[in-house]
Amino acid sequence: MSGGGELLCLGISHKTAPVAVRERLALTTKEAQSLCRELVDTDAIREAVAISTCNRTEIYLVGDPVHAETELLSRLAARADTRPTELTDAMYAPRNCDAARQLYRVVSGLESMIVGEAEIQGQAKRAYEAALEAQTTGPLTNRLFTAALQTGKRVRSETALGEGRASVSSVAVGLAREIASPAHPELTTLNVVLIGAGETSELTAQALAAQGVRTIFVANRHADRARSIADRFGGTVSSLHDLPDRLTEADIVVSSTSSPHPLIGVDELALVMRDRQGAPLLLIDLAVPRDIDPQCAELDGVTLYDIDDLQSVVARNRSVREAERVQAEEVVEDEIQRFARWMGQLDVMPTISALREHGDAIVEQVLAENAGRWESASARDRARIEALAKSVMQRLLHEPTIRLKSVDRDASHGRLQIARELFGLSDGVSETSSDAGDEAGEAEVRPLRRRGAGPAR
What are the tens digits of pLDDT across the range 229-241? Predict the structure, then answer.
């Protein structure tokens, strides 16, 4: 988009990087807001929205694509304590309609580890609301996220992609049942400890309750939230201070907090395992950054799974029919075409406005130059002459206006330049407008492709 910047997505996901890399780029809501504010304070970036979940961190920007990408990559590398070049292989950077397509697919659940999972819709909405609160959005990102959330709703209402409401939590509980089944055919005989009281823990408690589990200890810093989950699903609340005691009694532990540091270290767990006298312990870590030190897996009697380990389970038990995925992708593409037409107006409308202003100026100039030739004309006659002149101008510009609106986006820049030269319009006219409507026009698709950016369509 000449003059006003382009739409860019820079991201990393479970498809392009392991959890050990993703956790270094994970953002809390406050960290996402802070990063977006820093970005829009630079000369290269005008709008910014960041999404960070257990499986992805994606930042959507509007600005100069080259400088914006460099600026953001530098800041992410500093956050990950690594060189930018070490991140590039794991990151994708689609632009314009490909960036929009990426967000539409994410919100629709097509890019999720559990295809069709519904939680991402709420996560994307909260990320957008956080950016609104931080005042880092603008005309393009506002339109983008509003349309993406609407697309997600269409996918879930018009297709069966999310049928069964599968989630990372339900897969984790299924994994726990599978592993525990040799000695315990049912989970009802086991002690389960949930660490955290967020959405993932709530869904885990719900999935456990569906299996008949009632012995659920919820450990969390926020007692009220933990008590609410425990009351709903037949569990009890324990403080994090008492976590070692709970671990000593537990058979299964599922952790999913937003802590920036591990809550269970290898040394502490070694003491717990000594007290357990050889009783096995299953740990499932759904957090990013991870709540459980990976070295805990080396302790005798400990079985540890992290969020990436669930991918193999998901692949083995994938139940989404291909027809449902295809139908969902058709909805996404339909909405992308709508967004493309809107983006096309961002290029065309300023030139059309300048063309009309140029025509109005010519009419006013001609009327002023000939004002002395109809002194005897009445005010009504003068109004008719002015209306006639404007009508001629509007009819003359009608066909060029239609052609400019309908031109293919790939050829629009050259066509707009020719129109400006033919009509003597200023070369400095901005080619971005926040007031563009939904008229016809095609948006440019120029992704900076890297691994994970997805195919062009």
Answer: 889 888 899 888 8
Domain annotation for the chain: domains and CATH numbers: 6-164+322-341 (3.30.460.30), 168-316 (3.40.50.720)
**In terms of Cα–Cα distance, which of 437, 248, 251, 456 is closest to 353?**
437
How far is CA 416 from each of CA 95, 374, 393, rounded to the nearest angstrom?
A: 22, 38, 19
DSSP string, 185-224: SSGGGS-EEEE--SHHHHHHHHHHHHTT---EEEE-S-HH
> In the chain, what percentage of residues exceed pLDDT 70?
83
Query: Of 9, 36, 54, 97, which is the active-site residue?
Result: 54
Q: How are beta strands 6-13 and 56-63 bridged, if at all?
A: antiparallel
Is 97 labeled as catalytic in the residue annotation? no
- CA 220 centroid distance within chain: 28
The dihedral sign for the CA sequence 188, 193, 198, 200: negative
Task: Please indicate whether residue 171 or residue 104 has the higher confidence score (pLDDT).
Answer: 104
Other beta carbons within 10 angstroms of residue 15's beta carbon come to 15
The answer, yes or no, to whether residue 163 has pLDDT greater than 50, is: yes
